[in-house]
Design a protein that fits this description.
64% of the residues lie in helices and 8% in strands. With 272 residues, it is mainly alpha-helical. The strands form 3 sheets. Strands 1-6 form a two-stranded antiparallel ribbon. The protein has a two-stranded antiparallel ribbon with strand order 2-3. Strands 4-5 form a two-stranded antiparallel sheet. Strand 2 and strand 3 form a beta hairpin.
Amino acid sequence: MEIFSLLLKTIALRPYVFVFLTAFLLSAARLIGWRRTGYFLGITWLVALLCEFSSTRTGIPFGWYHYTGSTVGQELYISDIPFMDSLSFPFLLYASYCMAMAFLLPASGAGNTRFGIGIIRMQFPLAARTSWPVAVLTILFFAFIDIIIDPVALRGERWFLGQIYYYPEPGTHFGVPVANYIGWAIVGFLSLRAYLPLDRKLQQTDTPPGSVTGRVLLGCGLYYGVLIFNLTVTFWIGESLLGMTGLLIYLPLTVLLALRVLGCLPLQVKED
């Protein structure tokens, strides 16, 4: 009963995390099915939790950092790690996975034309979605979004997150050590290294036939939802330089994504 009570308190304290988590569950189930969604969630959460447990004790892989414990009794902890923190990794990795697939899945010509604008029809072959190019691009998108998230989270005492962790030796990127971003890449790599071979082994009957453009773009929407939330907080607390850095990073990526979805980039094409 105490754990259940703390879980309810966690939801009340961090509702935005559970909004994003719910969006992940619903959008992922539409694209990869509930079974794969469960595996993706479980694998990534466990990898993230173990890496956080290790890093707060050995400095590997994120570098040295410590949770303050300021919210003990207000939210659920696993050992000294807030439950909501490691729970964020699965939906961020899935959103990054969708971003990578949006660029690299094979596609045919426009399937929907509205106001004279056509949107490509992405296919969902097993070989493409579990390929190394998709995995590598996923890891890059995963580490990139933390360039926005971690500096603003580090300033949590200035907004409703609270000061939940700190680095004993502040890093060069707005106080965040470069090792932290390397650690995120490692979490992404280990999680995909476990999930993608499993995807190849599972039966393919619960994956959608035909075009998956809309389903993939739902995951991209989750990615941009998290990004916009964090950029909004960044500007709200007066960190204009940090916010502008994020905008400059993502503006060209957003333009490239739009060009890809509209069929303006000469990428791999698969005929229906």
